[in-house]
Amino acid sequence: MSFAVSQPVFAAAEVQKFVFVSPPQTISPGAVSEQITIQAQDSAGSESKVLSTACAALSSSSSGGEFSSSATDWSLVSALTIAKNSANRNFYYTDRAVGTHTLNAKVVLRPEGESRSCASWPREEWPSGWETEQRITIGASGASYDTSSSSSSPSNTVSAPATASQGGNSGSTAAEYKPQIYVSAFVPERSVAGAPALFDAEAVGLKKEPLLHARYVWSFGDGGSAEGKKVYHTYHYPASYTVLVSASSGEWSATDRREIVIDAPELVIANLQEGTGGFIEVRNNGAHDVDLSFWILKVASSTFVIPNGTIVGAKKAIPFPAQITGLLAGAENTALLYPNGNVTVLYKAQHAAETEAPFQAPVAAPVPTTPEKATSGTSVMKSSAPPAQKAAVSAPDAAIISASSISSEQSSQARQSAELLGAAGKTDTRGMLPWLLGVVLLLFIAVGGYLALLRPPQEPSAAEKLQKEAAEYDLVE
Question: Where in this protein does the record put region Disordered (predicted)?
Fold first, then answer.
């Protein structure tokens, strides 16, 4: 038998509350509790998955109470992450203070734009959410316990009355307490794919004293591992990774866990200027700050290591001047490298058509020319210039020809200038400058001829007048 449904139906009940679904417990002082679970539920009390990542802040009415997400690798936590599409979150509790205490869990949905982890997100910024409580009793009725130890670290024993331990401490009793050391991992919240990230850790002993000779082993969540208190690791792909560090000293050990988000780099060499007064500008187009410490600027075979603590902000740029780097930037051989020497980005010069060209005067179109016989018998080129150009040329020519008082030398210079102007118009099509120079030269000669016409005639001298009068009369002896 089959049934047809016109459209899919999704059952997605909204979370209405969080509750403790594990039963209340009674444990020995210093022992680790059995698993404690909080659950998201709908209004009917049924399990309901959260539709986005949630954060659970844990607290106890006892000042000595401690929480951990693992019973065997104890690591102090105060906030836990409830993954998207999950409904349950487990944790463990220990305390040396005898009595009945109240455990409290406050849960909020983390906003989609919130990049900080639940552990690093300040609680004073948390919006209102859900709260749930449960009681836990430390110490069985009628039993006596030695609580004189200064350490409040948990052992791996189960709640009383138990006869065997949960962890690797075989032979221990429920009232037995084993001291524990602690380790804290210092992991950057974000880093960039392809760039080494720095990881550091600090371990303290039974009396919270620093462990100077502890052994640290790292697991970076991508298959990589390293040993050492301070190490570097490079992630090759953007993702969210879980980092674990284990510290051991003698028979004691401890583990801490952190998360790191690896982003794809969005760096470009946005601009450069060549020469000793130039610079190389690195721009961060990403949404997060990028630490450029120990990255490398390279021009040909010359390099400059960017100093520690150099950070380029989101959507910002840093120009690195040649006076500091000693690099003479070039459009063909400038690059930004990761600290390990791998190329991050190469400078790509813009195509000539995409760059802004400097201003140029309009270029006149070539003018067709025809040969014409000159009076001197040589062949010259007559320009079929536009009317406006003809007027600019013919007006000075007319003035020169009509000026009868101009000497033959000046007339020859005028003709040579006109021929020079015509030749410039024919042979140089790169701009208007040759034309303008020719026109100015013609105007200069024309003005000179015009001024010569306006000059008043010189009066003949007395000797010239006498000679002229004598020539008009015949002398009779």
Answer: 142-171, 360-388
